[in-house]
Design brief:
The chain is an all-beta fold and 73 residues long. It has a domain of 48 residues. The protein contains no helices and four strands. A four-stranded antiparallel sheet has the order 1-2-3-4, with no helix packed on it. Strand 3 and strand 4 form a beta hairpin.
Length: 73
Amino acid sequence: MAESTLFRDLQFGREVYDVEIHGTGNGQFIGLVKEDGGPCRIAFRGSAVVRDGRRVGLARGSVAWVKQEGQGE
């Protein structure tokens, strides 16, 4: 796979995020980004699209959090 110009100039540091992506079986996906040792969560959902002849996931993220036990929304 050819290197994407989108990532060419990035430098990578320590890994601090875990990402889980799950397909829904109909071209859509949902994912969760979680920061190690912190409360930050970003939930994203989107669809697979074709850009420049390549299939990519297009998603929009939302701030998310773990509900406190015994509390409502």
